[in-house]
Amino acid sequence: MNHCMLMAEIIVAPELRYTQDNQTAIAELTVAFPGLRPEDGTQQMKVIGWGNLAQEIQEGYQVGDRVLIEGRLTMSTVDRPEGFKEKQAELTAQRLHRLADLGSAEIPRPTVPAAESPRSAASSATAPAAAAPPTPTASEPESEPDYDDIPF
Fold it and tell me: What's the pLDDT at 146?
């Protein structure tokens, strides 16, 4: 599966164009992100959005916006003026999220089991006791787990 998430800053304004055959909208923009090591410097990548997303990119995003991009990573070959071909990575966007907008979103907290919760000891005096799961009797054999319900 090819699914990437990239946090970057838009450095070239989105440009909107249309295909010749069916007039599908295409938006192109360039983003920059820091390299993995300090000596790598800043890296750049072209991002492409299609259809309704292309129009949203054109209307809602500008240079300087920090974004989280979800999409597919592809490689394209570009002819250089020096006479050789160069491979460049491109990200075909499926979703774009402005980081400023994500900061205001309510992010659900992970649930902590009551046994691991630091407040479980203090609240156990006031909380009603939870019902214990039924235990099998000697006449009932333990059922084996149903592995078909595993969600992966």
Answer: 58
